[in-house]
Write a structure and sequence with these properties.
This protein is of the alpha/beta class. It contains eleven helices and twelve strands. Strand 1 and strand 2 form a beta hairpin. Its cofactor is a divalent metal cation.
């Protein structure tokens, strides 16, 4: 059987069970937090770790077995904290390598790389491959997925460089990819084009945040090219209301695309992008339990079968992580 790397070590893909394919444990500006610990919202290490353990246990109680956490450089990846949490929950946590930017690269990459002041092989690819094959830092935890992003700013030079490095790391290692996209600019199509140019198998690409769109023509183009649609922002009702998200998944399932969708919230136990209290008021359903408690019952009411739900939660993730 095929195996996949989790925070606790290799696991059989058949044991991943029901998977939420895009959830963060923490999203943090680590450098800002270290220097201004009270901004924009206070941080208490033990409180946040205990809270994360509690939230993941509650998710496990709802029958979810695995989350994929695409927190990479730019989003505050810190694996030792995730290891602490994983020790106290039955949930499998899969982590990612890559770099999250909508525009520029960190300054550490501005002058180092092919054709630059210090002309070297692409360091991004080397770092990503190291995370996959050797492990992240000195934790021993290996990345199970690659991550890049393309937002409304489009294919800037920095975004393209990361995306091509991710594509090359995929070709070298076989590890699958998730791409943060903005469906309103159809940036998923741009990502597919660039990744295909690098030799990427598009069936191993999740086009993230596709669930923010109701444009069935756009979504079907992505799926018909082989990629998986990330219907992965349930609970972010400010970006698209609940009913429209559910209706889009149901419509695609009716059209035969259940085998090209995965589900998630893009939620976190803690995110420091805005004050915690404001987030709770603005998006009260943006949490790990919304799909289990609210989304799946309504999908069933809309005609999505239990078999199709199993396809989206179990079969598609398992196939995605098998080589």
């Amino acid at each position: 059987m095929a195996s996949v790397d989790t925070v606790r070590g290799p696991a059989d893909t058949a044991d991943l069970g029901r998977v939420l394919m895009h959830e963060h444990v923490f999203v943090l500006g680590e450098e800002l937090r270290e220097n201004y610990p009270g901004f924009p919202t206070g941080w208490d290490e033990e409180l946040r770790v205990d809270d994360a353990i509690s939230k993941l246990r509650a998710l496990s109680d709802r029958g979810i077995d695995t989350i994929v956490d695409p927190t990479v450089i730019g989003l505050g990846r810190y694996i030792p904290r995730i290891q602490r949490i994983a020790e106290h929950t039955d949930i499998n946590i899969l982590v990612a390598t890559g770099l999250y930017t909508y525009n520029e690269l960190p300054f550490q990459f501005h002058y180092v790389g092919p054709g630059l002041l210090f002309d070297t092989p692409e360091p991004l690819t080397e770092l990503f491959v190291h995370d996959i094959r050797e492990g992240i830092a000195d934790t021993g935890v290996k990345a199970a997925m690659l991550k890049c992003a393309i937002e409304a700013q489009g294919l800037t030079p920095g975004v393209e460089r990361v995306m091509r490095a991710v594509g090359r790391a995929h070709v070298e290692t076989g590890v699958p990819i998730t791409v943060h996209t903005n469906p309103h600019t159809e940036s998923g199509l741009v990502a597919q084009k660039v990744l295909a140019e690098e030799g990427v198998d598009l069936t191993k690409v999740v086009i993230g945040h596709s669930g923010d769109s109701t444009d069935l023509d756009y979504l079907r183009k992505l799926a018909d090219a082989g990629s998986i649609l990330g219907m992965d922002r349930f609970g972010l009702d400010l970006l698209l209301p609940f009913e429209e998200r559910v209706a889009t998944v149901a419509a695609l399932a009716e059209l035969g695309y259940a085998d090209r969708m995965v589900l998630a919230h893009d939620a976190s136990c803690f995110i420091d992008w805005f004050p915690h209290e404001v987030k709770e008021l603005a998006v009260p359903n943006w949490n790990y339990n919304h799909i289990s408690d609210d989304v799946l019952p309504v999908l069933r009411e809309r005609g999505v079968s239990d078999e199709q739900i199993t396809t989206m939660l179990v079969d598609n993730p398992r196939r995605f992580f098998e080589s």
